[in-house]
Amino acid sequence: MHSDYFRYVLEQTRVLYVPDRRIDSFGETLFNFRLLTEPMDSVGQCRIRSGRVEAHKPRIIRPDRMMGAELEGFSPEARRFFEWLKAHGRGLGHLQYGFCISRTEVHEELVHEDIREVADRLTKDALHSGDSFRAVISGIDDAWEVSLIRFMIEMIKESNEINLFDYKRRGLL
How far is Cα 86 from Cα 83, in angstroms, rounded to an integer? Predict the structure, then answer.
């Protein structure tokens, strides 16, 4: 994967259902995701990947020069994208403070339905689930982890203002 492809995946990824919750300032936050993609060269099929992705502080104390965001449980391609994003992304300065993003085992299901119908159904399910950590994402099949990382970066950005308020309230800033 190269820069143009990373940009393409970023542009094509859509968060169809945004979790009600944001990333916790001082603890761990675990999102339950459903990531939809269309397999290449397949009409009327949709791949649903289900799993969990977590944002937390690094669990190992490191020197300042080694601080920064890191990934756990992601492929080498996803790690290359993350490094590219840190080098080329704008407004990602908060990643330097030591976020760790990890994902658990992912389950895949191939359904013989149009992706729009599946997206509608999963979005309605998420709305009525009562799970404030549920997310529904649409991405690119061969770069689905890149789509998942994009979702997490978006959640980190969305949480930034709340996190800053919490830090200030506790006298940490």
Answer: 5
Taking the model in full, what pTM does it have? Answer: 0.76
Q: Partners of 33 in the beta sheet?
A: 51, 135
CA dist 127 and 135 (Å) reads 10
The amino acid at residue 158 is E
- Give the count of alpha carbons within 13 A of 169, CB side only: 8
| Whole-angstrom distance, CA of residue 71 vs CA of residue 141 | 20
Residue range 21-32: average pLDDT?
Answer: 74
User: What digits encode the pLDDT tens for the residues 140-159?
Assistant: 999 999 999 889 888 877 76
Per-residue b or e along 29-47, where b marks 16 or more CB atoms closer than 10 Å to that residue's CB: bebbbbbbbbeeeeeebbb
The DSSP code sequence of 122-166 is HHHHHHHH--TTEEEEE--GGGHHHHHHHHHHHHHHHHHHHHHHH
DSSP state, residue 64: G
How many Å apart are CA 108 and CA 117, to the nearest integer? 18
Find the helix packing angle between 144-169 and 3-12, rounded to 10°: 70
Q: How far apart are CA 71 and CA 156, in angstroms?
A: 14
- Parallel, antiparallel or unpaired: strands 134-138 and 29-37: parallel
